[in-house]
Amino acid sequence: MNKVSKLILILFVTSFAYFLIFPTLKWYFFTKEKDKQISSYSKEALRDYSKAQALSSLVKLKELYRKNPKGQIPDDLKYLIPVAKNNYKTYGREFPKSFNDIEALRGGFLTDSDIEELSLEIYRYYEEIKRNKNKIIQLGLDLSGGVSVTISLDYLELEQRLGRALSVLEKEEAIGRTMQILKERVDTFGLTEPKITREAGGNRIFLDIPGEKDERRVDSLLGGKGNLIFYVVDLDATSVLNSKILEAGPLYSIHDIKNSMKLDDSKKIFPWYIKDAYGVDDEARVRYYVVDFGLDNSFDGSHIQDAGILSDPKTGKDVVTFTLDSEGSEKFFAFTQKNVGKTLAVVMEGKIKSVANINHAIAGGNVSIQGDSFDKKEAQELAFVFKTAAFPVEIKIDDLRIIGPTIGEKTIELGIKASLLALVLVFLFMFVYYKTSGFVAGFSLVIYNLFLILAILSAFNFTLTLTSIAGLVLTMGMAVDINIIIYERIKEEIRNGRKFERAF
């Protein structure tokens, strides 16, 4: 390989490594602490914050325009400039010569819909920060603190339902499935890579989430069993319900309508919310269905083992699929066989997640649901509901507490400074003792090697702990040590009369 090829290869590897490590550098060195905190909000909380921030900014802009149209744009409103430029294009209006004054910025926000568009831009900004966090090197519980949870599994309810005691193998499967669901729930909430372990020979699970400080957020993530249930829809009662809603007008009370219908005890009304632009349930866009609670008209979703999405080769539409355990396969076959031609509602925690028709009896435990209006995101969300909604057994939170880092923030800061000082001293020694060769070795084996290692760790969203830092330091020390041994051997060969080129 000639020099040009080597240079191209080095530049390619360096560029690719920088691409991998950039999200980590951006998060720890260029993202404000306030932005980090806001990006950790739930979808509902982030939507509310975005709307409030948009309204506050536009109110301030109007007030500044009223006082002094030619005034300078304050720093806290400069983030409005890209949105204003986009609005100018949308309105088909002529761009101002510059966006240096309040008047030019005010011209980009003339209608009420601008508040909603600005709110969405703010929301997308923080969602992007949240996505970037999933691409960085995380700090472990010992470095950043976080939440530690102790969970115990209660097999009693499942054993009562089955009418027998669970075998050791069934308990092991329940623990494994619970740990998998916990991992997927934590990942979907956008939290740091968790550490999930189990009690040896026991029924307890230990969950550590580094960097998380909100107990309520973690509690909501773990709370409840999900109680995913499939119900048969009473189409006649649903039709009557919708007619009464139309008659009552926009200020209807679903509670009053329910009382006027005098439904049987085996019937219940559930809402199906349409998602808004933020991906949150829209209270103003909701449909109601009456479902049948009869024993033969429901199916427990805890039998679901796995779920995913496929593309129908004939229609090209996304299809949500899930698989059932052996007991669930038999029950689902009987359930669908009895209700062929009827409508099925998937209900979780009091809300309908999807509605589908039962076209035929389904045997074998492999089920698919195809919605006429599924898009990719909706299909993924429904598959996630199937996969993680119901734990196989009841879980109880024995302990949930916030813990601080093993070493304090000041100690971490001093450790970083000490490490940098040590690197500088090693470089000085290598340069003074081995001249240019020492500098090249130090740069390639220490700096560049460390850079590549961190890039790879960032790509895999690795969690950095005190132990892993010790491993990195040891690796760098061994690299320098080996290099010194090699150089000393070369010097020995030269002293023995070998020429420089032959001493290597």
From TrEMBL:
Key words, A-Z: Cell membrane, Membrane, Protein transport, Translocation, Transmembrane, Transmembrane helix, Transport
Topology with respect to the bilayer: Multi-pass membrane protein
UniProt cross-references to InterPro entries, sorted A to Z: Acrflvin-R, SecD, SecD/SecF_arch_bac, SecD_1st, SecD_SecF_C, SecD_SecF_C_bact, SecDF_P1_head
Localization per Swiss-Prot or TrEMBL: Cell membrane
Keyword Transmembrane helix tagged: yes
Membrane-spanning parts: 7-30, 414-433, 440-460, 466-486
Residue span(s) of domain Protein export membrane protein SecD/SecF C-terminal: 394-499
Gene Ontology cellular-component terms listed: plasma membrane
Residue intervals of the Protein translocase subunit SecDF P1 domain: 177-234
Start and end residues of each SecDF P1 head subdomain domain: 297-393
Record-level Gene Ontology MF annotations: protein-transporting ATPase activity
GO BP: intracellular protein transport
NCBIfam families xref list: 2A0604s01 (TIGR00916), secD (TIGR01129)
Name of the protein described by the UniProt record: Protein translocase subunit secD
Upper classification of the organism: Bacteria, Pseudomonadati, Spirochaetota, Spirochaetia, Spirochaetales
